[in-house]
Design a protein that fits this description.
This protein has nine helices and six strands, in the order ααααβαβαββαβααβ. The chain has 216 residues and is an alpha/beta fold. It has a six-stranded parallel β-sheet with strand order 3-2-1-4-5-6, sandwiched between helices.
Length: 216
C-alpha cells in the first residue's frame, strides 16, 4: 500500500463549516443518507447543493491513467460513481470505465456518456468476478458504511483488482480537525485517524493505494 494524492488536481472546495454546524440536524443526516435528489441537487445543508458536471475530474482521470499505467481498453470501476463524472472523463481517455452506486437518483441523472455503464450496488458487495478490473477506485465512498462494512468494501476492491485499488476516505490529523469534521459530516458512518483507517485496510488484506479527505 502507498499513500497517493490522486485528487491533487481537483480545485479546493469552499465549505462553510460554521453554517453547516449551525444548520445540521438529525433530519438533515437522515435525508442525506437516502442519496436522493435532496442530497445531490437540494439545498447545501442536505449535501452537495447541486451536483453538476464542470470538467474538474478531467485532470484527475489523466492522473489515474498515469498512476496505474493504464492503456486504452483497460477496465476501471468507479465505486460510488454518483452521476458518472469520473466515468465520463476516463472514457474520454480511452479507458473502458464503469461505475456502481447505491443512488438510483444519481444513476437516473447521469452523464450521457455514462449511460449503460453504471449500475446500482453497494461497495461492500460488488457483483463482479475476481480480478475483473485493471483498477478499482473508491473515492469518499466506503466511509458511508460502518467499520465492518468498510472492511468488507476494502476486501471487495482488493478482490476485483489485487494491488490496483485506490481508496480515499474522510479522516483528520488532530483533535481540532476531528471536531471540524464532525460538525460538517452528513453521510459518513465510520471515520477515524489515519492509523485507525490503516488497521481497517490491513484487516481487509487490502494492498492498493489510499489517501485522506481532511476538512480544516
Amino acid at each position: 500500500m502507498a499513500e497517493v494524492e490522486l485528487l491533487r488536481a481537483l480545485p479546493k472546495g469552499n465549505r462553510n463549516v460554521q453554517a453547516r454546524e449551525t444548520a445540521k440536524t438529525e433530519e438533515h443526516i437522515r435525508v442525506s443518507r437516502e442519496y436522493g435528489e435532496m442530497y445531490f441537487d437540494g439545498p447545501r445543508e442536505y449535501g452537495y447543493g447541486g451536483y453538476r458536471y464542470d470538467g474538474r475530474w478531467q485532470p484527475v482521470a489523466r492522473d489515474i491513467v498515469d498512476h496505474f499505467g493504464l492503456k486504452p481498453g483497460d477496465k476501471v470501476l468507479d465505486v460510488g460513481c454518483a452521476k458518472g463524472f469520473l466515468v465520463k472523463d476516463l472514457l474520454a481517455e480511452g479507458i473502458d470505465a464503469f461505475g456502481i452506486d447505491v443512488s438510483k437518483y444519481a444513476l437516473m441523472n447521469c452523464e450521457q456518456e455514462a449511460i449503460g455503464r453504471l449500475q446500482i450496488g453497494s461497495c461492500d458487495d460488488l457483483p463482479f468476478p475476481d480480478g475483473s478490473f485493471d483498477a478499482v477506485l473508491a473515492i469518499n465512498t466506503i466511509h458511508n458504511l460502518d467499520r465492518d462494512g468498510c472492511v468488507r468494501a476494502a476486501r471487495e476492491i482488493e478482490r476485483l483488482a489485487p494491488g490496483k485499488g485506490f481508496i480515499q476516505v474522510d479522516s483528520y490529523l488532530t483533535p481540532e480537525q476531528k471536531d471540524i469534521f464532525e460538525s460538517w459530516v452528513l453521510t459518513a458512518r465510520f471515520h477515524d485517524y489515519p492509523d485507525g483507517w490503516l488497521k481497517v485496510l490491513e484487516e481487509a488484506g487490502y494492498t492498493g493505494d489510499w489517501y485522506w479527505t481532511i476538512i480544516g
